[in-house]
Target: Isomerase
Amino acid sequence: MPQITVDYSAGLGDRIDRPALAGALHAAAVEHVAARTAACKTRFRRADATVAGEAAADLVHVEIALLAGRTEEAKAALADAVLAALPGHIEAPEGVHLSAEVRDLEPAYRSAIA
Model:
């Protein structure tokens, strides 16, 4: 059931292999937090302006929200796996700021398929 969001700088739009990255993120969630591939949902959001420190910079930030119950160690292992996978899905990743956050969803979270 992971809700995965990938925010990325506009300049990286043509350099990210979105389908392959989504597949890698789903596989990491299955491996590290016992998610089911069919339950993984990933969306990509382009950020038109990104700044790191005081300068414009390219960045990719992945947020994975899970139902509560995973250990902090499992969530940290998933974040580490995401960081390790990112460069392999970005053309010329040198200098790109990468980050990952794995967090619990709020207890009031609900999901449905219409």
